[in-house]
Amino acid sequence: MTLEFAPFIPWIAIALLAVLAVVLSVLGFLRGVRGTGIRLAASIAVLAALANPLLLQEERDPLTTVVPVIVDRSQSQQIAGRIDQTDQALEGIRERLGRFANIEPRIIEVTDPGDSDAPSTKLFEALAAATTDVPPARVGGAIFVTDGQVHDIPAENQPLPFDAPVHSLITGKADEFDRRIEILRAPRFGIVDEEQELTFRVFDDGEASNQPADVSVRMNGEDLGIVPAVPGAETSFAFRVPRGGNNVLEFSVAATPGEVTDVNNRAIHLIEGIRQNLRVLLVSGEPHAGERAWRNLLKSDASVDLVHFTILRPPEKQDGTPINELSLIAFPTRELFVEKINDFDLIIFDRYQHRGVLPILYYDYIAEYVRNGGALLIAAGPEHAGQDSIALTPLSSVLPATPTGDVHQAGFYPRLSDQGKRHPVTRGLDGSAVEPPQWGRWFRSVDVGRTDGETVMTGDGDRPLLVLNRANEGRVAMLLSDQGWLWARGFEGGGPHVSLYRRIAHWLMKEPELEEEALKARATGRTLEVTRQTIGDAPGPATITTPSGEAIALDLNEIQPGLYRGERRMTETGLFTITNGDFSSLVHVGAVDAPEFRGMISTTDMLAPISEKARGLTTRLDAGSDTVRIPDILPVRGEVRVADDRRMLIRLTDETVLKGVNTLPLFAGFAGLGILLLAVSAMWWREGR
């Protein structure tokens, strides 16, 4: 109860009346006037009535004590055993807190942020959000259920938002061990066939080992060998970029018996292969209109180093004209086809025929060059069907088609075959979607018999026109017509000769984008996109294996002939494996150096200083035999000064909420009237004597 005043007149007026009453009473006492005491009492009663004293009584209800329970549901908590421990701990905490009617638990489950590329465990951020709507005095404590890998722990000099105990219940086991691998330094770009260097490190979290770990290295799915690496020490690895475009370098260290997870036992690095210069040897068997189309295309690309020779006069043509008057440069056959043949990325024979310029043995060298990984393009004209055809030399062992000896002479539209509509070299060529194709006609092609590889373009009567084939490690393309220059000249509207020629060359150079059978995956944020390229039947769904080991089926929809695509937003981050049939691909969703994967073993070290500072308890839940041990809860009044090493202390709040106020005027109603009448009557009675 409290006493308050609500005066009827200003306090200054009451004060003046009080002074006047005191002065009169003092004079009365000095002069000995009888009844002065009663008059003073009556004056006091009147002044008290004017001050209007009120007796106030507040009605209050006690507020509950808020206890946030922050549950870690991050990826590191998905390890086998920790999920069950977390669920059991949460159920036990609910039951224990439920025994106290004046404690209000707030359960906050923290997962990886879905829009983050670098997931981390931010429990203190969740704790602050859970207590923003209550004053610090109402927070009785906080309980964390986590593996201890927390990435937003306050600094040592940073205070907590409340003065109450903070308890940490740690999942996992005390003697956990984990081995992981990280790529420390690596180039993002590399020149094809030039040596590059990468540095990685194997980490042993927990009980360290001094024994070297065997790290398997793969480039684009092919084994590069095994590298021994001492855990904790930096290890260098030298490699060569095998091709232009995207290259995937994969490092994996074998799982160690007893380690908590093998999710972080692999690491990948993407390196973009750059061809410093594409070295092309173009040999034209004779001057003709089509050779300029090839020459102009190759010379227009600044990244191409072109060596072009045109045979102006074969050896059998002897007319007495001196050699120095026929050509500027003699044809260096031995230098080109013996000594430096492996320096070329692509060899093009444009309407070339065997007429004694090249010794017969050199064709065998060229065939061997192809089988060892080289690229050969034959742009055939009528000479390819004659007796001097290079198809009648040892080069025939790598050619995908043999001429019949006939040359078809008639106008026709080059068309895409069924395979050509699906093959990345010819798929979607401008003008191919209509019938007849929206490009000009050609008028000559070389007839061939049975073909190997893929016939992607056909001529008149479905005659093979463009044939692509592999020969061991190398590739061969045969364009069975010399009429492509008509497109370059714009005849009947021309045609996509630049696009076609460039794609053929890039396919021969093994550009990944033009592989007819390929599985590719890329990540944009948390969205995983899978692309399957095939010239066969529909490949069916792809299988996504997540870092936690879950297998997810992903339907692939045909967006173009031979091109299938599907995408899915992933809830996890890390290294994903995508498989479809015999093909597999790796992709990393999220940042490679995300904090969530740097440490996977459970630990008490990170949260123990916070609990000690806040007079809380840090303890492990593991009690053996798949059971957990949850400390009891002890509510206390007043400030918590000492931590309890066996129980979780909760500071009960003294906060209340005002429900209402009862007001009792002391000089109002019959009580006040009676006091005033009593004072006046006493004064009248005294003066009447």
From TrEMBL:
For this UniProt entry, which residues form the secretion signal? none
Specify the superkingdom.
Bacteria
Read off the PANTHER family from this record.
Answer: BLL2462 PROTEIN (PTHR37947:SF1)
User: Per the record's keyword annotation, is NADP included, yes or no?
Assistant: no
Organism annotation: Peteryoungia algae
By its UniProt entry, which InterPro entries does this protein fall under? Class_I_gatase-like
- The protein's name is Glutamine amidotransferase domain-containing protein
**Spans traversing the lipid bilayer:** 6-30, 664-685
Answer yes or no on keyword Ion transport. Answer: no
The alphabetical list of record keywords is: Membrane, Plasmid, Transmembrane, Transmembrane helix
